[in-house]
Amino acid sequence: MLRILLLFLILLAGIILGPMLAGHQGYVLIQTDNYNIETSVTGMVIMLVLLLAALLTIEWILRRIFNTGSRTRSWFMGRRRHRASKQMKAALVKLAEGDFKQVEKLLTLNADHAEQPMVNYLLAAEAAQQRGDERSANQYLERAAEVANSGQLPVDITRVRIQLAQGHIHAARHGIDDLLNQAPRHPEVLRLSEQIFLRTGAYSALLNILPTISKISLHNEAEIEALKQQVYIGMMDQCMTEEGSEGLKRWWRSLSRKIRHQVPLQVAMVEHLVECNDHQIAQQIILEGLKRQYDERLILLIPRLKSEDIQPLQKLLRLQIKQQGATPLLNSTLDFLQNRSELIQCTYDG
């Protein structure tokens, strides 16, 4: 627009000044080695104006040509994006149907032209994994990492999820440790952490993230309590396997009273001690538990004990009968202890 205005002003100046200079035109001399070019000032101005007009015309033509090419490229790119969008919608339908082969095909046809190519490749990797094609799944993950640029978190989460599904537990554990450093409150990171820590026996690590899992409401309160008990019982198993009865007792004493007073954990601890043939400590835990609260789960463990000093148990059962009533379970357990006491006495007498 500015150039057209400039050209118009030059023409206007020529029209106004031309007649005024008609009698005083002067001349312009351009001299080279072989040529001398002479013209009037007015003629020179007209030639310059025409040259400028020619240059502007050429520029306009070239701009139209290149703009046409750009519009053509934009049109083709728009068609590809539209096609990729349609294929994404079709892939989601196939995903709902469970046709993972078609999901993978539709997502990868025009993935590079999709609105979010990374999403296409990640979903394709999940579909390939569902088909059991680990090689393709890993290739799609690598491609997703290439197009993701700085947004690598979805790629890393998907990679860990696929590694877990493939059974590559150690690789998944390494990946989830890195993810916990990057996004310690991310729901999917915590969900995967829970699964991986349980499968690898990393109970201490799982215990550390349980408060965060509870805060973000990944599980309800009952599920959190059940998960805690699973963790503590897993730790019992490890202590018993590695250190036997002594390790179990040290670990039990290291817990807070609040935890030791939980009946499910008391039951599990008694079972582990009985398996280790440590009936004395097992009996002590049962006695302490029943003194705090009556629970039939502890009563049911009494016949499994093989301790010789059963009088404390008999005394406690008689007290429970007075408080709870003569239930069949209490009566049968007390009778069992009485018979054992008589058998022990006969053994000593013999």
TrEMBL record:
This is Protoheme IX biogenesis protein HemY. Pathway: Porphyrin-containing compound metabolism; protoheme biosynthesis. Residues 26-132 form the HemY N-terminal domain. One of its GO terms (molecular function) is oxygen-dependent protoporphyrinogen oxidase activity. GO terms for cellular component: plasma membrane. The chain crosses the membrane at residues 41-62. The keyword Oxidoreductase applies. Coiled coil: none annotated. Involved in a late step of protoheme IX synthesis. One of its GO terms (biological process) is heme metabolic process. Its EC number is 1.3.3.4. NCBIfam families: TPR_hemY_coli. Keywords: Cell inner membrane, Cell membrane, Membrane, Oxidoreductase, Porphyrin biosynthesis, Transmembrane, Transmembrane helix. It is found in: Cell inner membrane. The keyword Cell membrane applies. It is a multi-pass membrane protein.
